[in-house]
């Protein structure tokens, strides 16, 4: 009896703030296996909620043991993507010394201002690092805080790794930093000089940061005889951009949606203005090391909050909203009935739910408010540029109401939902294509659904 040859695959761990996913892609980048999990969060020493780093580590090894036992697959490579602004502090044995601090953890205002004042003030500091002032979301400031508040512990730190590179380290045993992780609003990188900012060097932090490697680097596994290579890991939003950069040469904007909705314009290299910084614009670094102008909106997080609020008020399940399509009569009624306030992300949170007839009407108003905020956020990146296409991937790309209302906001552009909902995982796999896949890159990676303005 002939034994069927196992299918060559790449394993991608996509570690989001909420969902932790594992995908196996074949050589044509089709998903042939997937799994999703959620972990209970834990608390840091201050009682603040944070990721359970040990659960994450064990889950990765358990998942790998499972797929290695599957005779139908041959794992050729493994790579990781994860959310940014998260750092792991390791001792000389590679053991974490602290919890994985939450990027929403409150940051001491005085400490932050003190650092900024050392380097020309907050505005100058933000322009050089292409990072709005975001407290703990400026991951470099987390290091500065540890250095100032826990001096004895800081001395024991041998290596500081961004979360994607820590996950890679678990399998490769190598200590590296990588540009997409360094470039995501960390306040570590000087975008003018294209190197670590002076403050990182002056405070000796650069000595604990791992050497920088390219985003397409791979390493051998620490497990003897392992046939697979290990990628260095990527920042998730930057990874989501990779399939689009490989497939489209004409200027476009990508709105990558998840917990955050991040708009990317890889073709806008204009220097960040103070006004743009104040509206949460920033630069990322692409996997090619090039600056990518972006604007951020905490839209997925807000969606979770408000759908829960609507469901509780109207005594229904939040799951009802997943397949709720556009009802034009409801939109027209709401435009007359409800005052359209300033288009901020928190607009709907301030609305009284008693003014809505039912949950469907309330949800329509919420998405109207949300797409108003998204329009303003994305419009910052267009600013007169010849952008003809806007792609939306991630969770909101599957929300028909959201897509219809967003298309209505951008009558000058073609708005598409990407059916390739796992762009982050796919981009993470594509980054190391040359190291595991002998096949040419497929030209059908992205399927697009066009949404026209409905009025």
From TrEMBL:
<dbReference type="InterPro" id="IPR043129">
    <property type="entry name" value="ATPase_NBD"/>
</dbReference>
<keyword id="KW-0808">Transferase</keyword>
<dbReference type="GO" id="GO:0004856">
    <property type="term" value="F:D-xylulokinase activity"/>
</dbReference>
<comment type="similarity">
    <text>Belongs to the FGGY kinase family.</text>
</comment>
<dbReference type="GO" id="GO:0005997">
    <property type="term" value="P:xylulose metabolic process"/>
</dbReference>
<dbReference type="Pfam" id="PF00370">
    <property type="entry name" value="FGGY_N"/>
</dbReference>
<feature type="domain" description="Carbohydrate kinase FGGY C-terminal">
    <location>
        <begin position="249"/>
        <end position="435"/>
    </location>
</feature>
<keyword id="KW-0418">Kinase</keyword>
<dbReference type="GO" id="GO:0005829">
    <property type="term" value="C:cytosol"/>
</dbReference>
<feature type="domain" description="Carbohydrate kinase FGGY N-terminal">
    <location>
        <begin position="10"/>
        <end position="219"/>
    </location>
</feature>
<dbReference type="InterPro" id="IPR049382">
    <property type="entry name" value="FGGY_C_2"/>
</dbReference>
<protein>
    <submittedName>
        <fullName>Carbohydrate kinase</fullName>
    </submittedName>
</protein>
<dbReference type="Pfam" id="PF21546">
    <property type="entry name" value="FGGY_C_2"/>
</dbReference>
<dbReference type="InterPro" id="IPR018484">
    <property type="entry name" value="FGGY_N"/>
</dbReference>
């Amino acid at each position: 009896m002939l034994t069927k040859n196992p299918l060559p695959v790449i394993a991608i761990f996509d570690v989001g703030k909420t969902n932790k996913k594992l995908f196996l892609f074949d050589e044509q980048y089709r998903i042939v296996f997937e799994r999703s999990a959620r972990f209970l969060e834990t608390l840091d020493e201050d009682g603040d909620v944070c990721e359970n780093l040990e659960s994450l580590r064990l889950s990765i090894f358990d998942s790998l043991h499972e797929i290695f036992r599957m005779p139908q697959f041959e794992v050729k490579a493994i790579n990781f993507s994860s959310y940014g602004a998260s750092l792991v502090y390791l001792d000389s044995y590679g053991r974490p010394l602290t919890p994985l601090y939450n990027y929403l953890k409150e940051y001491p205002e005085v400490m932050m201002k003190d650092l900024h004042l050392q380097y020309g003030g907050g505005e100058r500091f933000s322009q050089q690092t292409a990072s709005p002032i975001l407290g703990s979301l400026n991951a470099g400031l987390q290091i500065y805080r540890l250095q100032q508040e826990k001096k004895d512990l800081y001395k024991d730190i041998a290596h500081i790794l961004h979360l994607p590179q820590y996950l890679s380290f678990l399998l490769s045993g190598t200590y590296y930093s990588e540009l997409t992780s360094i470039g995501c609003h960390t306040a570590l990188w000087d975008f003018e000089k294209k190197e670590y900012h002076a403050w990182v060097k002056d405070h000796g932090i650069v000595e604990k940061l791992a050497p920088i490697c390219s985003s397409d680097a791979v390493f051998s596994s620490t497990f003897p005889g392992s046939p697979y290579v290990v990628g260095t890991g990527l920042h998730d939003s930057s990874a989501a951009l990779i399939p689009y950069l490989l497939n489209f040469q004409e200027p476009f904007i990508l709105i990558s949606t998840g917990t955050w909705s991040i708009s990317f314009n890889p073709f806008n290299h204009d220097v960040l203005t103070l006004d743009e910084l104040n509206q949460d614009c920033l630069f990322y670094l692409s996997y090619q090391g090039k600056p990518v102008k972006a604007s951020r909106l905490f839209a997925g997080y807000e969606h979770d909050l408000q759908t829960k609020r609507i469901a509780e008020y109207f005594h229904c399940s939040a799951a009802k909203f997943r397949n709720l399509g556009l009802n034009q009569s409801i939109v027209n009624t709401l435009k007359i009935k409800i005052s359209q306030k300033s288009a901020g992300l928190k607009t709907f949170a301030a609305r009284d739910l008693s003014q809505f007839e039912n949950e469907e009407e309330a949800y329509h108003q919420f998405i109207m408010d949300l797409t108003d905020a998204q329009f303003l956020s994305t419009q910052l990146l267009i600013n007169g540029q010849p952008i003809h296409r806007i792609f939306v991937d991630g969770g909101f790309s599957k929300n028909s109401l959201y897509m219809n209302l967003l298309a209505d906001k951008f009558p000058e552009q073609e708005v598409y939902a990407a059916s390739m909902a796992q762009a982050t995982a796919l981009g993470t796999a594509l980054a190391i294509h040359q190291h595991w896949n002998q096949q040419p890159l497929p030209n059908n990676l992205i399927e697009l659904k066009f949404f026209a303005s409905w009025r």
